[in-house]
Amino acid sequence: MIKTVVIRNFQSHKKSILNLSKGVNVIVGKTDSGKSAIIRALRWLFTNTPSGDAFRSWDGGDTKVSATFYDMDKKITRIKGNKNAYIVETLDEQSVVTDKKEYTGIGTDVPEPIENLFNINSINMQAQLDSPFLLSETPGEVARFFNRVAHLDKIDLGQYNIKKWMREIEKIKSINEKTIEENKQKIEEHNYLYKLQIDVENLEELQNKRDKQKQRIASLQSLIDSIEKVDNELKDLEIWKEIEVPVSILVEQIETLDKQIKNRNGLFLLIEKLNEVNLSLKDLDAILPAEKKVHSLLKKNEKCDKMIEEYNELVDLIESIENVELAEETYRPYFDMEPEVKKLISLAEAHKAQSKQYDNLEALITLLENNERQLKDAFATLQKYQKQYDENFPEVCPLCGSNTSHQHTEL
Predict the structure, then answer these.
(1) Distance from C-alpha of 233 to C-alpha of 235, rounded to nearest angstrom
(2) Global pTM value
(3) Is residue 5 within a helix (H) or strand (E), and if so which, with residue range?
(4) Closest Cα to residue 85, out of 98, 102, 64?
């Protein structure tokens, strides 16, 4: 039961305060004195009608209608101006505010917590010029009124909402089916990607083999360079092979010469003795018979001198031969490498063939990289459509009621 009503800036009311009794209250006054405006203000407070700003005073300021009650410690205010809101205040015995709640962002309906406090709606309101309650209404309107009283209208509203939801679900279903068909077509267009993946794996294996072959080729190339260096050194030594036979002959001659040198040394001793004899027998006529022998020995001495010169030349030649033999011993391992050299030559030819294959592989890798980029673009598009599908398709199937859970197989 209403205790007080305060009206501010509502039609003709600048500020009006009404103190009501617990019984029946009668408001009297002259025409256009604001009696009906009080009822309109209460209707605006209890039902949030009418809408708009036509009822607001031209004097300016916020329009407010507030009421207190005998049977509850609440003060309810409807305000419109700088803000559009309902305010509920809790009062103590001295009418001091102990709690305050504000409801903003309201539409055409009264907030449910406030409606539950009032327990007042259009059924409780009767205006001055309203027709008699239900007597002038059509049977259909009367039936709808009683349906609202019995809450049967909620069944109609529920059926309407269900049909509306079904139409929306059918629309979403149609869109999703179309999207699924489009995605299936796109997936079929990218069926070649599986085969492409296998080709990429094969190419990666070939790439690994190619890298290993490159390493082997680099090692072989280094060995080939060493062999070429040895070949050049061997070419310099071929001259010594040509003198191998003459050197053998010279060695035999040297051996013979050694024997002759030994004989020559014996002759030198003999000559020295002869010189001594010659000195001692200078004055003797007995030396004359030995003159011819002395001349013969002198000639032999001259021959020995020539042989000594030849011997020195042979010694120099032997030293050169020994140097050649040392060089030959140093490079002898390379002579044993002739089969390996032939193998390297065949490997070099194989390397040329593999180089051609490598060029072909590089062209193929470039093609695969282009295909991989296309694959990534296609996969990104597929994920985009997958996301749209997950966002648009409900978690519960509208047809069978099963839980879809949006679980998809990863590609």
Answers:
(1) 5
(2) 0.38
(3) strand 2-10
(4) 102
The helix (H) or strand (E) run that includes residue 312 is helix 291-336
Q: What is the pLDDT of residue 373?
A: 78
pLDDT score of 169: 92
Q: Architecture of 2-130 per CATH?
A: 3-Layer(aba) Sandwich (3.40)
Q: Is 241 exposed, middle or buried (0-12, 13-18, 19+ CB in 10 A)?
A: exposed
One-letter amino acid at 114 equals: I
In which residue ranges of the chain is pLDDT below 70?
121-122, 127-128, 234-248, 250-251, 253, 257, 260, 263-268, 270-271, 273-298, 301, 320-325, 327-355, 357-358, 360-361, 363-364, 368, 371, 385-386, 388-411
* Other beta carbons within 10 Å of 78: 23
Nearest to 71 by CA among 125, 121, 38, 119: 119
CA atoms within 13 A on the CB side of 316: 5
Domain assignments of the chain as residue spans, ordered by start: 2-130, 133-178, 192-384
End-to-end Cα distance, the chain: 70
pLDDT at 409: 43
Q: Which helix (H) or strand (E) holds 16?
A: strand 13-19
Nearest-CA neighbor of 394 among 149, 126, 211, 168? 168
Which pairing describes strands 2-10 and 63-69: parallel, antiparallel, or unpaired? antiparallel
DSSP 83: S
